[in-house]
Fold each of these.
Amino acid sequence: MEVAQILAEIEPVAGRLLERHMGVAKEWFPHEMVPYDRGKNFESGAQWSPGDADFGDAGIEIDEPVRDALFLNLLTEDNLPYYFRDIDRLFGSDSSYGEWARNWTAEEGRHSIVMRDYMTVSRAVDPVALERARMIQVRGGQVPDPGDAIEALAYVSMQELATRISHRNTGKLMKDEIGTAIMSRVGNDETSTISSTAT
């Protein structure tokens, strides 16, 4: 059976799963989760150090591996334009798959907003290094290159599971209740997206 035939045959299932996802997905707003009262202006040219971090309570520090995980998790979310490009190319935009891809893109964008705002406000990571890495990541436009839409379905399902695990585990190790809540919220979104892709 050709890939196009397989996709056409399972599209009604994909449509039902998308409807289910939209029915259970809870609306939330990044600005309501970010502790903006911790923020202060960055001086131009000032060098960041781990001691600059402000997690609200004295004595809270994020361990270096957790800081690295936050950094990489956000870069994954930042590469969204290229994930969307390839998903759209493989599945098209005039089907349940296209509707799912657009909704997924909106949700992933929300994840990068809340994560970046939290990291900037709390000074959890070096903002200059983060922005330079984002520019390199997005300029490079590299994403996995599945051979066809069937491989892409398998990849997206596994990728969503991997990011859910990574976001949740990173959050558990943060020691900052707000950071933990943010990463848990993002991980919960990934969980409901897995349900939508598991056709």
Amino acid sequence: MSSILSRLRSDIQCILERDPAARSRWEVVTCYPGLHAIWLHRPAHWCWTHGLRWTGRFISHVSRWLTGIEIHPGAQIGRHVFIDHGMGVVIGETAVVGDGCTIYHGVTLGGTSLYKGAKRHPTLGRNVVVAAGAKVLGGFEVGDGAKIGSNAVVIKPVPAGATAVGIPARIIPSKAGQSADVAQEEAPAFSAYGVAAQQEDPLTQAMRGLIDSAQTQEHQIALLWRAIEQLSAAQHAEDCVPGDAATREHFEAQRLNDIIGK
């Protein structure tokens, strides 16, 4: 009994630590559907794993009706999991949610296979943040401390500490095994909605690299044409002098960088 009460207290405490809107334990207990869904999932999961499949599904169905959160009774939910807001969250039968994970509203941990008994749904490691509207689809793993950006569609594994953004999701690698958004000298911190400083779409980074490379090449080509023009003028071969346009730079790198955003 004491272990059950201790776990209930820890469920409440993890919400107080991660949600600045939570003002008291009483408010958390009475007004947080994510907490209610977790508490109802535990008896549903017990029934499911002890052969009472219909009973487990019925408890899950009642929980969905009360909270707007659908957790299949076969799913495995770890300790200190926080489902924030929660409306529209769907967690599939073979999904595994590790300790300390945070899941926001509209998230789907779904499967892409129709084979019964197979691992169809994702496995979230410890302290993973899945932001609002994200879809994680398939029986792969999302590593410890990873972040899934809002509305991302993840269809492949995410390394530990990395951030996945976009449709389909692209991976921002971690730095020295930490969160992709935290410098080495800083202590890792919780990032609400999986958003933090220095987070940037890798496709945008690649575009900026191509723009910088093109600007450098045009500058070098212009210098070469100027050198050829000077050499041709020195040799009095006016018919070999290139046009004025070849010696000038027209590549608008700044305008392109403005288009793709900061």
Amino acid sequence: MCMFIPVVFAMITIVMSPLLLGQEESLLQGIAAPEQISLIKIKGDAGLRYVGTIIERNDKEIVLLTEGKTKVLIPIETILDIRTIPSSHFHDGEYWFPNPNETRYLYAPSAFNLKKGEGYYQNTYLFINSFNYGFTDNFSFGMGFEFLSTFGSVGSGSFNPIYFLTPKYSMEVSENLRVGIGVLYGSILDEMGGFGVGYGLATYGNPEHNATLGLGFGFFDGDFRTDPVITISGMTRISRRMSLVTENWFFPADVYRGILTYGIRFFGESMSVDLALINNAELATVFPIGIPYVDFVVKF
């Protein structure tokens, strides 16, 4: 038994050493060239990061000149992630972290997609919950439910939750143009049946400033509509922690009728909160500025 433990420890060390070396080599390959700005995240310290220019490096450590002109010595083995920051993320010398919620406006999607392994949780009006996950850089899948109908009907003998599914595939066509297709499918009540929309998207711009045109063809309780639902949405970042967002739906009837939204998105590096108003010609007669809309998103 006494000999067994050292032998096992030695075997683990032999097996793990190439993996650890490979990880450090991968980090070294990701280190930016001199004069480029890097974002470095440190292991074991939640939220600890450094932003600055790497001025010295070797196989064991790097020296970073931070935004505050302070030199920091960082051992390679303590680095969780390191990446180059595009110059577009700096405004008047201040680092603006990437938009944490570029894949969706308020409810309508954009043609930007979650990266592989990324996901987010969204809560709307406290009762509507949804989860989305990126299976690849181009394909994501989401699902959601309404809290009261889901848990209120448990044990009632008639389990009838309101739910929805939202798969989406998108791709980059050019530097400022992305396109995508997706499906929104769900169920409201047994007597109303299921509903679904198959849609196409075109998004022009970048994650910080963009506009999206969407066309969707839907069915409701087995009735398929050949005239499309149209969405026109957009967002523009106006400060480090704030964007303006609008999402507008136009539904076919005897003539197209619209539902307009306009609001502000507040965000950090992994969370955003939307405060918006919903309005149209009919609502404006009762609520001149519109009905409040609130949601929040946590990215992981």
